[in-house]
Write a structure and sequence with these properties.
With 75 residues, the protein is of the alpha+beta class. β1 and β2 form a beta hairpin. A two-stranded antiparallel ribbon has the order 1-2. It is 63% helix and 13% strand. It has one domain.
């Protein structure tokens, strides 16, 4: 950090690391990558459990009823 006098005033210049109040490390990037992988994995598990736990939905009953009536010629 250093001060400069310009146009009758003082301006303070600091480096990008000082402005960020930190240093360049990969910790943040690693946390983001691991978190993203965990969230995607949990989403896949949730969708898989929901898919395999559902035996038959209301839409399946309507479709099978329509197919039965169509095969019997009751349109």
């Amino acid at each position: 950090m250093h001060n400069e006098r310009q146009n009758g005033g003082t301006e303070t210049h600091i480096s990008t690391v000082d402005a960020r109040s930190g240093s360049r490390t990969q910790v943040t990037r690693n946390i983001l990558v691991v978190s993203l992988i965990l969230v995607v994995g949990l989403l896949i598990i949730a969708v898989g459990v929901g898919y395999f736990e559902t035996d038959q939905t209301g839409a399946d009953g309507v479709n099978s009823g329509n197919a039965t009536r169509s095969a019997a010629g009751a349109d």
